[in-house]
Design a protein that fits this description.
The chain contains eight helices and 18 strands. By secondary structure, it is an alpha+beta fold. A hairpin with a 5-residue loop joins strand 2 and strand 3.
């Protein structure tokens, strides 16, 4: 490297305008330059800043430890030697801060990377499948969003869900897996469960298929419930309370499979499964037939085809307006 180039790098360093790559070049050149050459260069550089306030001797000793021993043979009485003490301090400053600046830049880059998030959105027509970096499998229902940080799994495993998701969590005893929604958190080590968290609904729920799960309300962390398989925890947004119920998980997971199977199920449960599978809601003018036991298998891809089959059996009529379906018994 030429002397002019090194002077330019020193100028940039002094002004705080040096890039990371240029700083590496300056550091390497300082380490490779002969002491006498470096002394003259740094002294010349320092003299350009005559108004620069001198470093206090106490601060020099505190910051750089052995500096005073290294320059003990030099008299500090004259202006020239006083300047050289400042040059030496500046030289050691370059060396001492080199690694810390490089580390700071790298850490800053890592923090910026970890602050970035990954967002997966399912469409309006079909569920989506997601494989997280730790091996966890997620199935997102229609109109659902899953978000996690770029450094997911490095120190923790945390995702945010809006909508509905079916989770098969890869077991890791050293890192909990947390599903965060706007009203409750679901915490596990490794298990399978379904979370229903559409923000425009009055209730959120977690239905457990296998393993063990802890659910707590985000607004009241002390409000906490544990669930075992075939149980679900419901958060009522109106009462702000958690509750525990038994369930077969059939209705809660009906949207995942390719077919719906019912064996002597009350018709009200059939409608619940259809609501979850197709993202609709039913209103019925006559509720007496909702307790009728129904057995059947549906492989149909849309709710109208299913209703046409049920209509042949029960003789009702239905009308659809958007996601609202009204059923009128004859």
């Amino acid at each position: 490297m030429t002397e002019n180039k090194m002077r330019e790098l020193l100028r940039k360093y002094h002004a705080g305008q040096i890039s990371k790559e240029e700083f590496r070049q300056l550091r390497d050149e300082v380490n490779a330059t002969d002491d006498e050459e470096l002394k003259g260069l740094l002294h010349s550089h320092w003299n350009q800043y005559e108004d620069y306030p001198p470093l206090l001797q106490e601060k020099v000793q505190a910051l750089y430890g052995g500096l005073q021993r290294q320059v003990r043979q030099v008299s500090v009485g004259s202006r020239r030697n006083s300047c050289w003490l400042q040059v030496a301090a500046g030289f050691l400053l370059i060396l001492a801060t080199g690694f810390s600046i490089a580390f700071f830049l790298q850490r800053s880059e890592m923090e910026q990377l970890s602050a970035q998030s990954v967002t997966i959105r399912s469409g309006e027509s079909a569920p989506s499948s997601v494989l997280l970096p730790d091996g966890t499998e997620v199935r997102l229902n229609i109109n659902s969003t899953l978000t996690y940080q770029q450094d997911f799994g490095r120190t923790d495993r945390r995702v945010a869900l809006s909508g509905e998701g079916y989770f098969k969590v890869h077991r890791d005893k050293s890192k909990r897996f947390v599903v965060h929604t706007d009203v409750m958190d679901v915490t596990v080590l490794g298990t399978t469960f379904n979370v229903y968290a559409y923000e425009d609904n009055d209730f959120y729920e977690m239905a457990l298929i296998e393993g063990r799960v802890c659910v707590n309300a985000t607004a009241s962390p002390d409000q906490m419930l544990y669930a075992n398989p075939n149980e679900k925890i419901i958060y009522n947004k109106r009462t702000r309370k958690l509750s525990l119920e038994k369930t077969s998980t059939k209705a809660e997971t009906a949207w995942i499979g390719e077919e719906l199977v019912f064996r002597h199920e009350p018709l009200r449960e059939v409608f619940r499964c259809l609501e979850r599978r197709f993202g609709v809601t039913f209103s019925v003018n006559d509720t007496t037939f909702r307790n009728d036991a129904y057995t059947g298998v549906f492989r149909e891809k849309n709710v109208e085809d299913v209703l046409d089959i049920l209509r042949q059996h029960y003789g009702f009529e239905y009308k659809r307006a958007g996601d609202e379906i009204s059923i009128q018994m004859k």
